Amino acid sequence: MSTIAFSAMPTSDAEMLWNGGTDAYGHQPETMISDGPGHPCRHCLRNIDAGEELFVFAYRPFPELQPYAETGPIFLHKTPCKRYEAEEVLPPVLATSRDFIVRGYGKNNRIVYGTGAVTPIGDIPAYATSLLERADIAYVHVRSARNNCYQCRIDRV
């Protein structure tokens, strides 16, 4: 049994955008057409296929504004998709790169210094598990090692 769970963006966040809501900066999401790999949907945690419409928008995966509440661009299928559910296994979207930044955050939603590491995809579960064994780590983010874009969250089970 796994001790960690990979979590996609909440469906409530996706539905708000699908229903005409605005992003973290108060703007309408932009619509683009995917040209293939490189457009990972943060709700289903799969790549958006070439030719499919997608939203690109500013996302802040934190409950409140504060200095460590990183906000950045992410993608979402324009047509509603099913939220990623296989929480115990590495999401398909993480197979699109050789490594990612894995970083721990405290209960105050701030980076726990010294936890961020560029991590090969095969080592993500073990590194996240080791971080979540620490009392000062509440959850972990997986982010692009090239652009720092938010990919998903990892929690202890």
Automatic annotation (TrEMBL):
Q: Which domain of life is it from?
A: Bacteria
InterPro entries assigned to the protein according to its UniProt record, in alphabetical order: DUF1203
Q: What is the protein name stated in its UniProt record?
A: DUF1203 domain-containing protein
Read off the lineage from the record.
Answer: Bacteria, Pseudomonadati, Pseudomonadota, Alphaproteobacteria, Hyphomicrobiales
